[in-house]
Design goal:
single chain; mainly alpha; Hypothetical protein af1432; 0% strand; HD_domain; HD/PDEase_dom; HD domain-containing protein
Length: 198
């Protein structure tokens, strides 16, 4: 099924100022493309909800300074339950609502998108298929060379260490297609970055 991705351009433009934090101007477009690919496996999913949620899911990091993001969001114990993670989700709901209203989306779509954003990192279990797709799309980018490079900076790791971190996350994928895509991308990244020798 062909998607007209240009229909999301107004949302990209409205959200762009909030993407200039935490390398989200790299993370979000890559995750969006993974979401497009993952949606091919799930024709029953709501494409608008999934694509808008992945586009807006991390814009809440804009409201938090980078030092706090790194120290509390990536290098503290139990990072997924840190206060800064909850804060970025709440800010993401606030900013996402503003962006979606300003670009003409219905209140029903806004509610569904914000339900996913609120808890996308901290909620233990997904609520439904759209949530599962967004969660997997959010993780998939880190298996690319670019995601590994950014992850090395965030976590203070070498590429080999970051690849090992990502391998441990594979069982946490919510969908089989997502896990298969991540496994293939990880193999390519390991090869490209020569992690078997470096």
């Amino acid at each position: 099924m062909s998607l007209d991705l240009s229909r999301y351009d107004p949302v990209w433009r409205a959200a762009e100022p909030y993407m200039r934090a935490r390398k989200n101007d790299v993370h979000i477009p890559l995750s969006f493309d993974w979401c497009v690919r993952l949606l091919e496996h799930f024709p029953q999913a709501d494409r608008d909800v999934c694509l808008l949620a992945i586009l807006l899911h991390d814009i809440g990091w804009w409201a938090i300074d980078m030092e706090t993001i790194i120290s509390e969001g990536f290098r503290s114990e139990n990072i997924l339950q840190s206060d800064v993670r909850y804060r970025h989700e709440a800010e993401g709901v606030r900013l996402g609502t503003e962006v979606l209203r300003a670009t003409g989306w219905s209140e029903d779509i806004i509610a569904q998108v914000c339900e996913i954003i609120d808890g996308h990192d901290t909620r233990p279990e997904p609520r439904h298929l759209n949530d599962r797709i967004v969660r997997d799309s959010d993780k998939l980018w880190r298996y690319e060379v670019t995601g590994t490079a950014v992850g090395c900076d965030w976590f203070g790791e070498t590429p080999a260490e970051n690849c090992r971190r990502n391998e441990k996350i594979l069982p946490k994928f919510e969908t089989e297609p997502g896990r298969a895509m991540a496994t293939a991308a990880l193999a390519e990244t390991r090869k490209a970055l020569k992690v078997h020798v470096l």
